[in-house]
Amino acid sequence: MSVDWKLYEQDIIRWYLDDDMTAKETLKRLNDTHHLSVTQFKSKFGGLKNLRSDEWIAVIHEIRKREARGTASVVYLHGKRLKLDSTVRAVRRYSKNCQSEATEIGYYNPIQPFIATAFLIIG
């Protein structure tokens, strides 16, 4: 049976991203709320919390350009700020691929990762 994801997409995104539920917890909530049991969740929504390696390479390239201008960066994915330790770990992991692949990619997808200027709030 084919699932019309549009009917459930808003709830799934709220639970999976905003409430930071795991895929398993989100599927249980989907079943409890809408009496829907699905198996295609990972293929449809699995990439919402993580960037692919080619996306990280593009992000690292952008971060380096901003650093060269003296601008600190924070990375957002789907409107949520990524944790600093996760970002540092990903930069360390994918930096070795940046030299050759960053110029080959040649794009920055404004819909996926969002890089903003870091700022400090003193209150």
From TrEMBL:
<dbReference type="Pfam" id="PF14420">
    <property type="entry name" value="Clr5"/>
</dbReference>
<protein>
    <recommendedName>
        <fullName>Clr5 domain-containing protein</fullName>
    </recommendedName>
</protein>
<dbReference type="InterPro" id="IPR025676">
    <property type="entry name" value="Clr5_dom"/>
</dbReference>
<feature type="domain" description="Clr5">
    <location>
        <begin position="2"/>
        <end position="45"/>
    </location>
</feature>
